[in-house]
């Protein structure tokens, strides 16, 4: 009898935790496990702003999937571009662009999220996100190149536009990105004697009336004060009306000469969700508390791609797209798949939020672990301690700690590494959001494959 085939889509926090629990809990002959991911690493996403600012190297936040002693999962190098739930087939575009079918008995949809964009003129062509390792490395090169080009220019208008930087999004990603990169440029400008430090201006804007409202009013105001003391101009209740290569127009009518627009205004579930033609909640797959897709055999979803009911909060709440929920959902879902294989009942996911940490670079941070409000160095210790402990391998922990210590002792460096090409990359170039098939294309593909098989 053939072993059951478990296919996990996505190597984020949810997918990797699910795979690791399956590897530890299933006997080698009990099931075959496969993981669909374009890269054989788990990206520790919360530390990307520190990669963009050069505090951490890219390798330190790319945690290898093959280092586990119990690693026996078959890694399919590519991205899922469609799922045919009736045929029980996942359509995968490999990194060679070859399209293959991956049959399954159980599928775990942990495809994560992509940068949420809006129909704003010029946005997708002139903005960069902060969702991938390549984007973080690109943005670092881009920001340093603006200093180099401004230093070499004799045109005052060009200088002004190259030294203005805009970050959109007052959540954790945007706030940490603006804070970390502002520290980078303020330290770097000391090595550019022809540049006036006063010309370098960072802008953080968000359509919401508060900065990081999840932290509460007191900590949100503390973060706002830290940013403004550093010289970052924070504008709330404002968004982008139009983005051009050399200027940004805000919804309040201001026009800012600018060559750097970083877009972190929220996330949307992976476009893979739309290929299932299933019910969604705020764009995420509607699932049961056990994380199964109602009415569809063998399909589970979790993490950013799923609207998992938050039973700890109740009142119809769904779990926020955070790493702590994704990791715990991954482990619980693995237990549920094992229970299904062994004929036991599934258990609902319940987890009380442990709090939030925000690293603003240097000695600045605001954190709320277990509801306790912290600022300054205690908050920094809590933030970095949490991230360090959450890294999955000892090698990753060693790299990150070494990077932190080296940066604290030696300071920043301002070398461009060559990731930036002459042609500017777009959001789509990094996140491949136009690679997915329509439901009709998926059915035609799987039907054609079955006929030829």
UniProtKB/TrEMBL annotation:
EC primary class: oxidoreductase
Q: What is its EC number?
A: 1.6.5.-
FAD/NAD(P)-binding domain residues are 5-330
Q: Which domain of life is it from?
A: Bacteria
Name the InterPro entries on file: FAD/NAD-bd_sf (IPR036188), FAD/NAD-binding_dom (IPR023753), NDH-2 (IPR045024)
**Which Pfam families would you find in this protein's record?**
Pyr_redox_2
Q: Does the keyword Transmembrane apply?
A: no
Recorded GO molecular functions are: oxidoreductase activity
Listed A to Z, the keywords are: FAD, Flavoprotein, NAD, Oxidoreductase
Entry similarity comment: Belongs to the NADH dehydrogenase family.
Could you tell me what this protein is called?
A: NAD(P)/FAD-dependent oxidoreductase
């Amino acid at each position: 009898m053939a072993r059951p085939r478990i296919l996990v889509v996505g190597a984020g926090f949810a997918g990797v935790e699910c795979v690791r629990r399956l590897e530890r809990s299933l006997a080698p002959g009990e099931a075959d496990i496969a993981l669909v991911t374009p890269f054989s690493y788990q990206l520790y996403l919360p530390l990307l702003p520190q990669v963009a600012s050069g505090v951490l190297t890219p390798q330190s936040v790319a945690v290898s999937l093959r280092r586990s002693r119990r690693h026996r999962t078959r890694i399919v190098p590519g991205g899922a571009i469609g799922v045919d739930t009736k045929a029980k087939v996942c359509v995968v575009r490999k990194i060679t662009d070859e399209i293959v079918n991956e049959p399954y008995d159980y599928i775990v949809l942990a495809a994560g999220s992509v940068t949420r964009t809006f129909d704003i003129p010029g946005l997708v062509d002139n903005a960069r996100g902060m969702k991938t390792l390549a984007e973080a490395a690109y943005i670092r090169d881009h920001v340093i190149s603006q200093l180099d080009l401004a230093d070499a220019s004799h045109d005052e208008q060009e200088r002004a536009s190259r030294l203005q930087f805009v970050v959109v999004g007052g959540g954790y990603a945007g706030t940490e990105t603006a804070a970390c990169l502002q520290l980078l440029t303020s330290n770097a400008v000391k090595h550019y004697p022809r540049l006036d430090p006063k010309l370098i201006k960072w802008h953080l804007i968000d359509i919401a009336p508060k900065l990081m409202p999840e932290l509460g009013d007191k900590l949100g105001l503390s973060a706002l004060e830290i940013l403004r003391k550093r010289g970052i101009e924070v504008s709330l209740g404002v968004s982008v009306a139009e983005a051009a290569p050399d200027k940004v127009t805000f919804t309040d009518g201001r026009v800012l000469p600018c060559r750097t627009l970083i877009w972190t205004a929220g996330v949307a579930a992976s476009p893979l969700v739309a290929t299932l033609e299933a019910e969604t909640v705020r764009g995420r797959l509607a699932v049961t508390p056990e994380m199964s897709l109602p009415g569809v055999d063998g399909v589970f979803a979790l993490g950013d791609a799923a609207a998992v009911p938050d039973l700890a909060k109740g009142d119809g709440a769904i779990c926020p797209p955070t790493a702590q929920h994704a990791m715990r959902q991954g482990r619980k879902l693995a237990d549920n798949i094992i229970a299904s294989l062994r004929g036991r009942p599934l258990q609902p996911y319940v987890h009380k939020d442990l709090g939030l940490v925000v690293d603003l670079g240097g000695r600045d941070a605001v954190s709320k672990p277990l509801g306790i409000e912290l600022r300054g160095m205690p908050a920094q210790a809590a933030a970095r301690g949490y991230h360090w402990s959450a890294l999955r391998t000892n090698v990753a922990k060693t790299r990150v700690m070494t990077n932190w210590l080296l940066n604290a002792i030696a300071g920043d460096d301002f070398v461009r590494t060559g990731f930036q090409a002459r042609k500017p990359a777009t959001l789509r170039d990094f996140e491949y959001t136009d690679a997915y098939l329509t439901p009709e294309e998926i059915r035609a593909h799987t039907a054609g494959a079955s006929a030829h098989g």
